[in-house]
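Quick one: structure tokens for this chain, please?
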Amino acid sequence: MRNTAAFNEGREGDVAGLVREVQGRVGALADLLHGLSEEVVEGSDATGAVVARVSGAGRLLGLTVDPRAMRDLDHVAMSAAIQGAIGAARSEVGERLARAMADFAPGLTPDLAPGLAPGLTADAGADPPLGDPLAPYVLALLREE
């Protein structure tokens, strides 16, 4: 992003060029997120008795429960199995999003610290919202790190 670099260095640069660059990146990001939201991801509980299907946006699309689980699990264990399956599916969605963002913005990949991009600490302004997988990328992109 040539024009962004000029502005970061304090030079005036080409404002129209900067706007075009930003619009191009925003459009590419929107396309990426739309493509991810169209995906269907599956996850299962630790035993494999419950399988959840979620959209790329994390919305629950379906739940399959093995008939043996219906017979063998009480309501508490069944609830835990369902939560585990949904959590596993949503976790996979988050991992896919992280991989896609790493490809979209190389060098801006966050470390495994929850909600923080490399170099971002609590002292660098407000902490990003926990559970928001895009927060580290957006903050890093805005800071051009």
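The CA atoms of residues 94 and 124 lie 24 Å apart.
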